[in-house]
Amino acid sequence: MTSIVVHYKELALKGRNRPWFVQLLVRNIRTALRGLSVRSVRSVMGRIEVELSDERSWDEARDRLRRVSGIANFSCAGRGPLDLPELSAAILRDLEGQHPDSFRVSARRADKRFPLTSPQIEREVGGRIKLARSWRVDLEHPALIVHVEVLSDEAFYYFGKEAGAGGLPTGTGGRLACLLSGGIDSPVAAYRMMRRGCSVLLIHFHSYPILSRASQEKVRQITSLLARYQQRARLVLVPFGELQQRVLLAVPPELRVVVYRRLMLRIAERIARRAHAQAL
């Protein structure tokens, strides 16, 4: 099984611009899987197929795909012909070594011109599996679900689903800037915007050399974690210590925090404009 079938949900609701969203998701998947033995990444009939050269790359590919925004779920899959006896034989070969208490077959037709309906495909393939393995059929709570997806010239089959990050593909929501403090709130805000398809520029204000470099090191670590979810991330470090000292001497104590934040906002706004960010 050297294919990965990627499904998306929210993109399917798009209208005439859906191909653009799918194209960006394909690009992001290629970027995320760079360095692995990937033959091709292509959009095919409402899903995306990643073809691996070596099935040993599946574990690393799974870890990377989990962090790609826009993916609802994905599965390690095999390919088979549209001939159901041959397809059933391929499924049985890949089921070698498995001994579930129960199973069921779940079929979908991407090409409605296929002569059998989805329930008929389920009965045909499921009957052949039951005949060969004598497994118990359980349509409500099966221990194993055999998924079959019929396309126009071939079929995919897989035995489980991995959850994706959901949301929209990175790059579809425009560019924005986010102030990163090093606490929990701002990284979560940045991550949530990444899931909505935004490319996020990160801005951090530090007080070095008045204080240590600890805050800079912390935000670098946070940036490296967030970069996994948008493939690349840019961090702008702004020295703020001198301005803090000036405010300390000129502004009453009860207004200092407000002035600090106002200055940070004005500086971040200029950085965002230079980076062509559409929001802050």
Please give a structural write-up:
With 280 residues, the protein is of the alpha/beta class. The protein folds into two domains: 161 residues, VC0802-like (2-Layer Sandwich), CATH 3.30.2130.30; 100 residues, Rossmann fold (3-Layer(aba) Sandwich). Helix content is 38%, strand content 24%. The chain is built from eight helices and twelve strands. The strands form two sheets. Strands 1, 2, 3, 4, 5, 6, 7, 8 and 9 form a nine-stranded mixed sheet that branches. The protein has a three-stranded parallel sheet with strand order 10-11-12, with helices on both faces. A hairpin with a 2-residue loop joins strand 2 and strand 3. Helix 3 packs across helix 4 and helix 7 packs antiparallel against helix 8. It is elongated and about 85 Å long. The model has no long low-confidence stretch (mean pLDDT 92).
Overall pLDDT = 92
Instruction: Give the end-to-end Cα distance, rounded to a whole number of Å.
Output: 45 Å
Radius of gyration (CA) equals 25 Å
Strand content: 15-25%
The tally of strands reads: 12
The CATH architecture category of the largest domain equals 2-Layer Sandwich
For the record, the count of structural domains works out to 2
Helix-residue proportion: 25-40%
Form type: elongated
What string gives the helices and strands in order? EHEEHEHEHEEEEEHEHEHH
What structural category characterises the helix and strand content?
A: alpha/beta
Number of alpha- plus pi-helical segments: 8
